[in-house]
Amino acid sequence: MAGKYRPPSADEPSFERPPRPLGVPIMCTTNIILAGTVPLIRTFFQSQGNFFLLPAVTRLVGVALPILILWASWSTWSGRDRGRTALLYLLTIYYAIQIFSYVIILQTGILDSTTTLVTILSILFAIAWVGFNWWYFLRPATLIYYRRPKKSPPSN
Known about the structure:
Elements lengths: L22 H25 L8 H22 L3 H28 L4 H26 L1 H8 L9
Helix pairs in contact: 1-2, 2-3, 3-4
């Protein structure tokens, strides 16, 4: 069993950290791209270099939240439980704001049928992606990676 993680029995304390689940880097990379890097680049190009002329809400949603999501994704990838928790809450806030803005746009009725379909699919994707993140990062097999003690065993 060399190289395989063996969960400790109830009577033996284990300070060995289990291996990182394969989905953690995949989920974190996807979150870095979709909710971190892309919104930052989009905001930069929309501002045309005049960042301080943007409304405060745009700066918050387009810059502050994506930067915090980048930090939380990196923290989650590194195995920090606080980063995992922060990532889940930040993604929920980010996509809730995005869904709210999509619903407002849909209510105006100014979109053509193709754009309306894309907007509805964006709402469904946001709901599914947030749900998938919550499911994955709260499932027991993933929680083991974040909840293990990080101390070394006492030396004899």
